[in-house]
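Final paragraph of the annual report: two paired records, presented back to back.
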Amino acid sequence: MTDAAPEREVLTWDLYGQGSRELAQAVADSGYVPDVVLGIARGGLIPAGSLAYALDCKNLFTISVEFYTGVDSRLDVPVMLPPFLDAHDLDESSVLVVDDVADTGRTLELVAQFCAGHAREMRTAVLYEKPHSVISCDYAWRRTDRWINFPWSTEPPVTGRSGVLDA
């Protein structure tokens, strides 16, 4: 007898469109007006762009953080990757930090520490928040304890790192 694979949360492109709009509406309804939307690469880039458009915020920055190396496989601690954002670009700004999911929350925690002492105010927004996250996000579209299949990362890459198409 084999164990069945755990049920996954599946986010389709259509559902993503609805969810990102509802998340943006929650930010707007709260009265928070970000000067900067800061997307955490890679998973938070698409949600950050969507929120920036929906909130009419033209200042969209990115910060690269690596933590996950595969399904339920991660580094010991999240690490920032170059090119590095100049934290002084956030000075006295209200910043909305956006990611796809707050799983452990440690990536968001690292970015919050990076913003500390620079941003006038910082809030966090994610599509999904998991119950064991060390960060309680200001805005979360849904809460789940399941692994999430995002439409932008479910399929394998179409090329290998060498730039040659896989056969």
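The closing record of the year follows.
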Amino acid sequence: MDIITTIKYVFLGLLQGLTEPIPVSSSGHLVIARELFGIEATGLSFEIFLNTASLIAILAVYRKDIISILQNLWRFVFKGARDNDAVTDFKYTICLIIATIPVGVAGLLLKDVIGDNISVGFVGVMLLFTGLALWFIKNKRGEKRDGDITVKDSIIVGLSQCIALTPGISRSGATLVGSIAVGLSQKNALRFVFLLYIPVSLGTALISVGDIVNDPNMNTLWLAYLLAFIVTVIATYFAVKWLQNIMQNGNLIYFAYYCFALGAFSILYQLIWA
């Protein structure tokens, strides 16, 4: 393993960390970066490895929310508590579970279909769709809070997350669009999106342990993988904090512009240089 290869993988970790939380498709960025930098990779184990790193960062950012929900859930189920916090967080947890089911089923069914033979041009087209979705909800200001989320809302958000199994369609973007479309305020939509990311990412990591362990590159690129993992954790943490500030100011439109620009570049690259 040479230093240039290590730098390339660390760069992919940085790219994953910066783009996973924000609505611009981290998987699409990895496809583009691999093409531009000539990084050969088979299967999805490296992406899942980096997604697990992003999961750790998101757990750190939302640790207080998670602890509070778990405490209220425990009180509701085992202590018989029926105060507003206990009831709200119980319903909220049920809605998170319901929203997780569609992508869990789709992920299992499409596990062997979604691979690494995705072209840069295809990613570009999907980025344009992501940009359009963000454009349409740029001015929408919902009023629903955590306790107002319904089963129907959860199903809609869950189905929107399934679309993001395609590289170039942002997971956070798709679920943000779905959450805001059903009437959640931007602040509560963002919270729901990232709390929804936790069970989905955790489940993906657990069922993919074998793929990661048996990754043919692990023996020779373990240091590059490790450094990429660490960089991803750090970058994701700060990217989430950054997105929280952006959402407070209602500046989602800038992500739409970015997706349009990168999507156009990717399509032109496929047509002219690839």
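The mean pLDDT is 88. This concludes the annual technical report; the extension proposal builds directly on these records.
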